[in-house]
Amino acid sequence: MCKMGFRRITVVVLALVLGLSLLTGVAGAKAPKYVFYFIGDGMGAAQRQAAEYYLRAQTGNEDLKLVMNQFPVAGVNTTHSADTLVTDSAAAGTALATGYKTNNGMISQLPDGTNVKTLFEAAEEKGMATGIVTTTRLTHATPAVFASHNRTRGAENEIAYDFLDSGVDFFAGGGYRHFVPQNWKWGKSKRKDDINVAQEFYEQGYNIFLTEYDTPKFRDYRPKGQEKVFAALTYSHMPYELDRDDTKVPSLAEMTAKAIEVLKKYDNGFILMVEGGRIDHACHANDPAGTIHDTLAFDKAIAEAYEFYKEHPDETLIVVVGDHETGGFGLGFGKNYFLKMDQLFDIKVTTADVLNYGAGKYDGNRSKFYSFIAVNLGLDDLTSEEKTKIERAMNIVDAGKKVKGYGGYDPVAITVTHIISERANMFWTTYAHSGSPVPLSAIGVGAEKLGGFKDNTEVARVLFSLLGLQPTKVASNQLDSLLMAAGN
Prior knowledge:
The protein is about 40% helix and about 15% strand. The chain is of the alpha/beta class and about 500 residues long.
């Protein structure tokens, strides 16, 4: 045998041994009993830091950190889908829930339509309880990938019905419209049939909370034992945190605390996925204040899990990830090397919702609009240049024109939100997702396995291994490839 061939086999064998030892190390580690999987939809590094910088400026405490930014393990994850660099939430969520890449739009299926096992399904086979909390509709892409399988994320009525067979013990979020029949007497529905999914959940023994009117009941509910909950508290998504009326709907932190209260009753532990879903929506609309407040609300939910962790430090794992970055959000504008967070302090409503679709939407009455943004957005001192930009957008709306460059949003709303961003020295490069890697942070049992530069599929594969669940196909293929190489 030539020396070159010997060296080649030696390198391959070493790689095989290293690979086996790494996998054995993960699989052999102590399994966490309680797992919190926090997914900030659209939350990249800039979103996390903008929220932290805002908090520091608001409190005057320059040492203040978000809870998620204090965790000892940090990593960076790539997010591309199987068919494109820029992923959507369905493909990214599938990667985080199953360890497999798929095409944009697909819900826990491979591109060929094959269902792939989720962390929840595997955990339930082990006897663990599972829960989903989100600020989006429960049938939206990220929550859907943990509890259903579908070729398209748009089939929300089908996804809602699939949830009945999911085995998930706790649901809380928005979107009751997909769980109630057409012509439902208590509110509107998006279904085209008479199937009452919420009623079927009730017949399965779930405690049911539907519409904003059930918020007080949801808050007062106390589980007496191993109980199940289904709460869909709004017609569509939950409101942005900046627009949320506390008397009508609970915060993400409240829903997370309720999930913990319910799931901790289960003897074999639990895995809870919590999504800060509207971070993404605010970024799509390039709304800096909306983005920051929803990220802060997400961090408060993480704080609830961290309090639980402090009571069970030897049994708990908390993982915080983004599924992708949205908006191409940048901190620092032009030659201005400082953020001016005080420009956001007087903002009372989102531009993403209220200015695009709600009470602040420009309706042709210019005087009324200027009064609204002065009172609600702190824009009572517009420069002549800023006012010219707004007037130009108003002319477009008044003329009924459809022009490119506004991402499908209202031109006046987008112009105003960009003025706010520029005042704060922030900028946006897109109304869509970007291909930028996103940060991860973790604490607890096995957290050290999640650090470093990884693909999003690797996050799920590590969790599978830590929980002693069925190993992923990708890990097996990697070992097969090494063995084949050694044989050659």
